């Protein structure tokens, strides 16, 4: 089973080699990279990146042969029109990006903190995964934003900005 895609998703399946054609994009993008297949008891890695686009085009990249890459536009969030994602609900709020993986057929070990501040143009999360069961397996991946006041007043707001199912064939 492959990744679930939407019209704003560009998915490239390939090994290392020539780069795919550039994809037009908005201010923020999510890139997901995961293995196509694993053996039972074998390990692999998954990388999610949230990045600010500084150019008019982006070329998804695969670091390891046999992986899939998906570059997607995050979902829009309600809030102040024309405001940045960091200040979508209030200029006094700070924004955090939070990523997570879930998959019953895998042991998943996070290599970075789940929550990261939006104080740099590229935020990356990496996980090591161990395949526990054979067959077509899936891992649910999600990136969400959390806006909260530094002084602790007011209620924090959380919104999913990207969620997908990552398919992996375990043999």
Task: Provide structural commentary.
By secondary structure, the protein is mostly beta strands. The protein has one domain: Immunoglobulin-like (Sandwich). Helix content is 0%, strand content 54%. It contains no helices and 13 strands. It has strands at residues 9-13, 23-24, 28-35, 37-38, 43-52, 57-58, 67-72, 93-102, 106-110, 115-117, 122-131, 135-149, 157-170. The strands form 3 sheets. The protein has a 6-stranded antiparallel sheet, with no helix packed on it. A 5-stranded mixed sheet has the order 4-13-12-8-10, with no helix packed on it. It has a two-stranded antiparallel ribbon with strand order 2-6. β12 and β13 form a beta hairpin. The radius of gyration is 17 Å and the shape is elongated. Residues 1-25 have low confidence and may be disordered.
Major β-sheet annotation? 6 strands, antiparallel
What's the end-to-end separation, in Å?
A: 14 Å
Order of strands across the main sheet: 1-7-3-5-11-9
Using only C-alpha atoms, the radius of gyration works out to: 17 Å
SSE topology string: EEEEEEEEEEEEE
Helix content: under 10%
CATH class: Mainly Beta
Low-confidence stretches: 1-25
Overall form: elongated
Strand content: over 45%
Quote the average pLDDT. 76
- CATH fold name: Immunoglobulin-like
Topology:
Layout: E1 9-13, E2 23-24, E3 28-35, E4 37-38, E5 43-52, E6 57-58, E7 67-72, E8 93-102, E9 106-110, E10 115-117, E11 122-131, E12 135-149, E13 157-170
Parallel strand pairs: 4-13
Antiparallel strand pairs: 1-7, 2-6, 3-5, 3-7, 5-11, 8-10, 8-12, 9-11, 12-13
């Amino acid at each position: 089973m492959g990744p679930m895609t939407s019209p704003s998703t560009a998915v490239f399946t390939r090994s290392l080699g020539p780069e795919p054609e550039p994809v037009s994009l908005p201010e923020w993008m999510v890139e997901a990279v995961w293995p196509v297949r694993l053996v039972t008891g074998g390990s692999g890695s998954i990388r999610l990146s949230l990045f600010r686009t500084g150019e008019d085009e982006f070329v998804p990249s695969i670091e390891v042969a046999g992986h899939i890459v998906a570059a997607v536009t995050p979902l829009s969030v309600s809030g102040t029109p024309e405001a940045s994602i960091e200040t979508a609900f209030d200029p006094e709020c700070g924004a955090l990006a939070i990523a997570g993986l879930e998959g019953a057929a895998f042991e998943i070990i996070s290599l970075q903190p789940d929550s990261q501040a939006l104080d740099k143009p590229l935020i990356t999360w990496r996980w090591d995964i161990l395949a526990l069961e054979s067959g077509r397996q899936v891992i649910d991946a999600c990136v969400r934003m959390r806006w909260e006041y530094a002084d602790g007043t007011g209620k924090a707001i959380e919104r999913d900005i990207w969620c997908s199912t990552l398919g992996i064939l375990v043999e």
